[in-house]
Design goal:
Layout (H helix, E strand, L loop, with lengths): L1 H24 L8 H23 L1 E6 L9 E5 L5 H5 L7 E6 L8 H7 L3 E3 L5 H16 L3 E4 L17 H9 L3 E6 L15 E7 L9 H31 L13
Parallel strand pairs: 1-7, 2-5, 2-6, 3-4, 3-5
Antiparallel strand pairs: 6-7
Length: 259
């Protein structure tokens, strides 16, 4: 575990150094179309994933890429880690993310988010702000963008019970576009609230898209069931792999009935 600690430390230092380098590289894109900046963002995502493979021995497997439809789309992803907030960027032509308002204030990084017309949300402003956010996101999707959204609203520990919010259903109903569910097990490799990064096989699985036109309750029930039913086996397989590597699973919750 000492080696993993040191590798994690090195990765985090290089990750943020790499981020600064890409931020500087992207400066000329202020004078270019947004697509140029988006391409830089995709290179950043890919280089960060490559760096994690080299330093931490974390391999990434993508499944179901052929299921990604073209055109306007809602991408509903499981959210266990910061990892998917940049990794999913690379698969879509005009990705749209909902970001915290505070990120928009950051020099350069926040300016880039504004240039890409990401949708900001003030989580402290109540229902009216959430409604305005959903309206803006829906309008952007109808113009042809792919909204990458985390239906649980925030990063959840791997073993936490699912907590799907109703906001995604409102956007789905208003937009009338397909929804692509995404399952993953990133929380076992890039856990929340720690700098540790673990080796193994991180899997992202794109599931069968849900067609437009479902009723709100049916949509929430189906999207949550699809994501959770696919996430469980991915997590279990990763835990078995980590058990072979370490003799135990790092950051694993104790089994029910055991201390």
């Amino acid at each position: 575990m000492v080696a993993i600690f040191l590798r994690s430390l090195v990765y985090n230092l290089l990750f943020y150094l790499l981020l600064v380098c890409w931020i500087l590289i992207a400066i000329p894109t202020f004078l270019m179309p947004a697509r140029a900046l988006l391409n830089v963002g995709k290179y950043w995502a890919r280089s960060s994933i490559w760096l994690m493979r080299v330093v931490c021995n974390t391999r990434v497997e993508y499944r179901g890429l052929e299921k990604i439809p073209s055109g306007p789309l809602i991408v509903a992803s499981k959210h266990q880690s910061m990892w998917e907030t940049f990794a999913l960027l690379q698969f879509f032509e005009q990705p749209l993310f909902i970001v915290k308002r505070e990120l928009m204030w950051l020099p350069f990084f926040g300016w880039y988010l504004q240039k890409l017309n990401m949708v900001e949300v003030d989580r402290t402003a109540g229902a009216r702000a959430l409604f305005a956010m959903a309206r803006r996101a829906g309008e952007a999707v109808r113009r042809g963008r792919q909204l990458v959204i985390f239906p649980e609203g925030t990063r959840r520990p791997v073993d936490a019970p699912p907590d799907y919010k109703s906001g995604i259903a409102q956007i789905y109903v208003d937009c009338g576009v397909p929804c692509l569910p995404v399952a993953l097990n990133s929380g076992l490799f890039w856990p929340r609230r720690t700098f540790m990064r673990y080796p193994g096989t991180l899997v992202v699985e794109f599931l069968d898209p849900l067609p437009p036109g479902l009723a709100r309750r049916e949509f929430i029930a189906r999207v949550s069931t699809l994501i959770e039913d696919a996430t469980g086996p991915l997590v279990e397989a990763a835990r078995q792999e980590q058990a072979r590597l370490f003799g135990r699973v790092p950051n694993s919750a104790p089994a029910k009935g055991k201390a």
